[in-house]
Amino acid sequence: MKLGSKFYLAGVILFAIIVGFILTAPEHIFDKPVNASRINNHWTRIKATKTINAITQNNSTGYFIYKGRPMGFHYDLLKEYCLQNGFNLNIIAEDNLHKAIRMIKQGKADILAIDLTLTKSRKHQMNLTEPHGYNHQILLQRQKSPKDDDFVDCVIDLEGKKVYIQKGTIYKEQLTVLQEQTGAEFDIIEDENHTIEELMVMVSEGKIDYTVGDQRAAMAMKTFLPNLDYSLKISPKQKLTWAVPPYEDSLLNSVNNWLSEFIKSKDYNKLERKYFTTTKTSHHSDIKNLPGKGGNLTPFDDQIKKAAQEIDWDWRMLASLIYQESRFNPETESWAGAYGLMQVMPETAKRMGIEEYTTIEGNLLAGVRFIKWIDNQLIETVPDSTERIFFVLAAYNCGLGHIQDAQQLANKYGRNPQIWADNTDTYLLLKSQPKYYHDKVVKHGFCRGVQTYEFVMEITERYRDYVNLIEKE
To answer: Is 422 left (phi over 0), alpha (psi -120 to 50) or beta?
Structure first.
């Protein structure tokens, strides 16, 4: 062989080795390294901003919408941690596990709050917290019945059967090990179109007979789907943790100190019962209403979407307002006579030209016409349409006059009357003090501004949750 040919062949072999290494090397090798000089940077920022940025997943244990309300086991744990420490919570919903892990390793969030199985590999890549729970991988099937001969009591009973799993999960590896250990031959079908929880629903509905998942997720889903059985464990007991970025030792200590005490408390036991044992009986038994991105908020989503078009709002913002007013109960009536989904007063409905305001459609139309009227009154003083939504929400709650008074006070005391946060809202809060509600620029007197302030804050925070979890269209 000629010398040039030898060099060419050597180059080809070297190239193949490099490509092979890139394709098979562990993912964390290529992660951007963390600069050790930035130790505890997250904790420093958290203390300054009083805000925790947390990643969790949109599923039955992480973060979901139920009857219009954001909730979830990890969501509620995070809220408790933030409450105890005086922090605000900002949720980042990320369902892709590999992406979520990469984000926390690269410091793109403060906490990864999911059922993260503790492994030796992960211990070297991230700061893992003390366990917040324990888990097994389990086989899911329908509950045993006298007419059912396909119930599986042990792995060898899977002989000749089909087990569906979500593609890309670790369940295939565990099932393959069990096949080797037991000699049982069964088909492992990797499904790339459905999540683990969607496969659980398919089992419940009889579309498939078996799937594999985590015990905790199965416990949570069983509260929605009572006919599921998850009694057959197929893995050893595993520790479940949260994670914080590398080098964030102060944040880790804070979470661990809180977690080690909280998991011993009655409040923690209540959370476990709430998510893992209490049956959810409602219209949410339909798959489209189970925890998951794109599900329905209410039985009235179509009507709310149509009403939102009248005012050119994101329908999820309108839905958040409606939740605040009526919890989506179309027959709610207040002590003052406000009625329906949008708590419309009879005189307001009459002013808006709506006679049948007690019907769902009439109530929504009266409510959005009133919103449109408020919006028109504020266009000149709050020209930015996005900013104006905060003012409209506030006026919907306490009346336009009080909001205009707060704007006048903001202008007098050197704040921006076109901005809500830390400007006009400050003076709405101060309108409960004589110095301010007796001011010459005030035309509408005393206002318990804290109620309206919280009204706007809760609606906008819930809207952010809806945006995270519910598709716009």
So the answer is: left
Tokens of 354: 């709506």
Using a 10 angstrom Cβ sphere, with 0-12 exposed, 13-18 middle and 19 or more buried, the burial of residue 269 is: exposed
For residue 378, give both structure tokens: 């504020």
CATH topology of domain 30-132+240-276: D-Maltodextrin-Binding Protein; domain 2 (3.40.190)
Q: What is the spatial distance between Cα 452 and Cα 454, in angstroms, rounded to a whole number?
A: 5
Burial of residue 276 (number of CB atoms within 10 Å: 0-12, 13-18, 19+): buried
Residue 392, classed as helix, strand or coil, is helix
The per-residue pLDDT for range 52-109, each reduced to its tens digit, is 999 999 888 899 887 778 889 999 999 999 999 999 999 999 888 889 999 999 999 9
Residue 463, Cα to own-chain centre: how many angstroms?
11
* Token digits of residue 133: 């729970």
The kind and range of the H/E element at 304 are: helix 301-311
Q: Could you tell me if 275 and 217 are in contact, meaning their C-beta atoms sit under 8 angstroms apart?
A: no
List pLDDT tens digits, range 13-28. Answer: 555 555 454 444 454 4
Rounded distance between C-alpha atoms, residue 70 and residue 68, angstroms: 7
185 given a catalytic annotation: no
Catalytic member of 310, 325, 333, 458: 325
Can you give the residue ranges of every domain in the chain?
A: 30-132+240-276, 137-235, 301-469
